[in-house]
Specification:
heterodimer; A: 301 residues; Rossmann fold; Alpha-Beta Plaits; four-stranded antiparallel beta sheet; 13 strands; elongated; B: 275 residues; mainly alpha; 11 helices
C-alpha cells in the first residue's frame, strides 16, 4: 500500500499512508482513536475506494478485483454485522456454506468456547461471545489473510488470552494476520511488526523490540511509586548530568537516562534520606507505551 | 423447564466423544459454487423471516384472519352477485404478496443495513447480485407458503377459483418485483426506524385503497382512476379477472405492473446504500 489517501468530505482520515505486510506474519496497526486505522483496513477490504494512492492485497485491487479477493480473505468488523435474532451456531454454519473448503464448524465452536452459546440468539450472547463468534466468522473460510479490527475489545482476561492463542496459531498455520488495536500489550505480545499510525500516517513501523530500541537508543529508566509531591530537584542534584526525573501521574516517578548501578544507589539513598519506601521499583527499557506516547503525544483528543 | 432442557442439551454435547484431531487453520481459500451460495443464503433468509414473530403476524396471521372474518360475515358489501369468498380470496392474495415483498422485505433489509449485516455479507464470497437473487428467492418462497395456506382456507370456505395458473404466477411475479423494488428503495435510503413506520403505514393505506378488501366501486370515479394505476390495484384487479371471472392474461393490469416493476427496481438500484 503506497500513498493511500482517504477523505470523508473535508476531513482527511488517511493521508499518504505507506504500509507493507509480509506473508505469514502478524502485523499490528496501532494508533489512538481516530488515527485512521479502521479507514486503512476498510480500504484493504474493498469497502472504501481510496481517494489517492495504490492498495494491493494479495496482488489484487480490492475495489475492482473484489470478487477474486474476497474468497481469500477473512474479515472481522469492529462491531457486529450479525442479525440480532440469528443463532450463533446457525450463523457460523451458514457462513461456512459460502466457502469451498470451510473449517469443521463443531471444532471451531469448541475451540472458541462457544458450545454453550449454540442456540442463543446473537443479541443475547455476552459481549465476549459476540466477539468470538465474529472472529470465528472471519476464519471459517480458511483464508490466507485475515483482517481483525480490534479483536479483543471488550473481552475479559481469559477470553483475551484464548483469542491471542488462536491468533498465534493462525500465524503458525501460515495465515497472515493484520489487526488493529489500541492495546499496547496486545501489540507487544502478538505482533511481528507494529505500525504506529497517527493522523492518517504511519509514524513508525518496526518490530516491537526495534521500536523500543530505536526511539530512545537503549535508554533505560527507573520507575517506582511513592507518596506524591516529593521534591525531585534535590534528587537531580545528587545524580549525574543528563538524567531526567519526572512525576506523572502524581506518585508515579520515572528517572530516565543512562541508568548505572550508581544511579540506582543514589535514588534509593535519596529515598532513604526522606524515609520513603519506593514501591514496585524496577529498572528497565522504555516500554512500547513510552514509545507510543512519545510518537503520538500525550494530549487527549 | 426451558432452561433445564437447554442445560441438558449442552451437557450432552460436551460429553459426546470428539475426534482428537486438532483444528488446523492452514489456508485453503475458495468460494463455494455461486448457486450453492445463493441457495444457502435464500434458505437462511427464509428461516430468519419465518422465525420473526412480527413478520409472521404481518405475512401469515393477518391475511389468514381477514380471509376467515371477511368471507364469513357480511362486514362489507361486495361488488354485485357471487360469493364473498370469490371476491376476497384474490384480494387477500394481493395483501399477502404486498406484506412479504414490500413491508417484510423493507423492514428486514432496513434493519440488516442498520446492524451492519449487509456490510458483513459484503466481505464474504457471495456477490451483491447473489444476495439480491437470494432475497428474491426468499420472498417468492414465503409467498408460495402464504398462497398455499390462504388457498387452503379459502377452499375450505367454499371458494371456486377459475382461470389459468400461469396468469396468476405472472401477476404475482411482476407485483413482487414492483413491491420488492419499492421496499428496497425505502430500506436503502431511510433510517431503519423510519422504514419500519413508513412501510407499515403504506401497507395499511394500500390495504384500504388498493381493492384488497374494499371494492373500488365504493370510491368516487375521479379517485378511482388514480387508485387503478397503483400496483396493488393492478394486482388485485388482475387476480380477480383471472380467478373470479376466468380471464387469461389481463393485459392492462400486466402492463401497469410491468411498468411499475421496471421503474421501482431501477430507482432502488440507483439509490441503494449498503451501509
Amino acid at each position: 500500500m503506497t500513498g493511500l489517501v482517504k477523505r470523508y468530505g473535508a476531513k482527511t482520515a488517511v493521508d499518504g499512508l505507506n504500509l507493507q505486510v509480509e506473508t505469514g506474519t502478524i502485523t499490528a496497526v496501532l494508533g489512538p482513536n481516530g488515527a485512521g486505522k479502521t479507514s486503512t483496513i476498510e480500504c484493504c477490504e474493498g469497502y472504501r475506494k481510496p481517494d489517492g494512492g495504490t492498495v494491493r492485497v494479495l496482488g489484487l485491487d480490492p475495489v475492482t478485483q473484489g470478487d477474486r479477493l474476497r474468497p481469500r480473505i477473512g474479515v472481522m468488523l469492529q462491531s457486529g454485522g450479525i442479525y440480532p435474532t440469528v443463532r450463533a451456531v446457525e450463523m457460523l454454519k451458514h457462513t461456512a456454506k459460502l466457502y469451498a473448503n470451510p473449517l469443521d464448524t463443531d471444532g471451531l465452536i469448541e475451540r472458541l468456547g462457544l458450545g454453550s452459546a449454540g442456540k442463543t440468539p446473537f443479541r443475547r450472547l455476552s459481549g465476549g461471545q459476540q466477539q468470538r463468534l465474529s472472529l470465528a466468522l472471519a476464519v471459517v473460510g480458511r483464508p490466507e489473510l485475515v483482517f481483525l479490527d480490534e479483536p479483543t475489545a471488550g473481552l475479559d482476561v481469559q477470553a483475551r488470552h484464548a483469542t491471542w492463542e488462536l491468533i498465534e496459531q493462525l500465524r503458525h498455520d501460515g495465515v497472515t494476520v493484520v489487526l488493529t488495536t489500541h492495546l499496547l500489550d496486545e501489540a507487544e505480545r502478538l505482533a511481528d511488526t507494529v505500525a504506529i499510525v497517527d493522523t492518517g500516517k504511519v509514524v513508525a513501523h518496526d518490530t516491537p523490540a526495534g521500536l523500543s530500541a530505536a526511539n530512545g537508543a537503549g535508554e533505560t529508566a527507573i520507575r517506582f511509586t511513592a507518596p506524591p509531591g516529593l521534591d525531585l530537584e534535590t534528587l537531580l542534584t545528587t545524580l549525574p548530568a543528563g538524567l531526567t526525573a519526572l512525576e506523572q501521574p502524581p506518585g508515579a516517578y520515572t528517572v530516565a537516562g543512562d541508568i548505572t548501578p550508581g544511579v540506582l544507589a543514589a535514588v534509593t539513598s535519596w529515598c532513604a534520606a526522606k524515609d520513603v519506601m519506593p514501591q514496585g521499583l524496577n529498572v528497565g527499557r522504555r516500554t512500547l507505551e513510552d514509545v507510543f506516547l512519545d510518537l503520538t503525544g500525550r494530549d487527549l483528543r | 423447564m426451558t432452561a433445564t432442557a437447554s442445560a441438558d442439551e449442552t451437557g450432552a454435547m460436551n460429553a459426546a466423544p470428539r475426534p482428537a484431531a486438532p483444528l488446523s487453520f492452514t489456508p485453503a481459500p475458495g468460494a463455494a459454487p455461486v448457486r450453492r451460495m445463493i441457495a444457502a443464503q435464500a434458505a437462511h433468509e427464509v428461516r430468519l423471516m419465518l422465525r420473526n414473530p412480527e413478520q409472521l403476524l404481518l405475512t401469515i396471521v393477518i391475511p389468514a384472519l381477514m380471509m376467515v372474518l371477511f368471507s364469513g360475515e357480511s362486514l362489507i358489501a361486495t361488488d354485485g352477485p357471487g360469493k364473498r369468498i370469490d371476491f376476497y380470496a384474490p384480494g387477500l392474495f394481493g395483501a399477502a404478496v404486498l406484506s412479504t415483498a414490500f413491508t417484510g422485505l423493507a423492514i428486514g433489509t432496513g434493519f440488516e443495513r442498520r446492524y451492519g449485516v449487509l456490510k458483513r455479507m459484503g466481505a464474504t464470497p457471495l456477490p451483491r447480485w447473489g444476495l439480491i437473487v437470494a432475497k428474491a428467492l426468499c420472498v417468492l418462497c414465503v409467498e408460495a407458503i402464504q398462497i398455499a395456506l390462504l388457498s387452503a382456507i379459502a377452499l375450505a370456505m367454499g371458494w371456486h377459483p377459475h382461470g389459468d395458473p400461469f396468469s396468476v404466477a405472472l401477476l404475482v411475479v411482476l407485483a413482487t418485483g414492483t413491491f420488492a423494488g419499492l421496499g428496497m428503495l425505502m430500506a436503502g435510503t431511510l433510517r431503519a426506524e423510519a422504514t419500519l413506520g413508513l412501510a407499515n403505514f403504506v401497507f395499511l393505506l394500500l390495504l384500504a385503497g388498493g381493492g384488497v378488501i374494499i371494492p373500488l366501486s365504493k370510491f368516487p370515479s375521479g379517485v378511482r382512476h388514480v387508485l387503478d394505476a397503483l400496483p396493488i390495484t393492478a394486482l388485485t384487479n388482475g387476480l380477480r379477472d383471472v380467478l373470479q371471472h376466468g380471464a387469461t392474461l389481463p393485459w392492462a393490469n400486466v402492463g401497469i405492473l410491468a411498468a411499475w416493476a421496471v421503474a421501482a427496481i431501477a430507482a432502488a438500484a440507483r439509490t441503494f446504500k449498503w451501509e
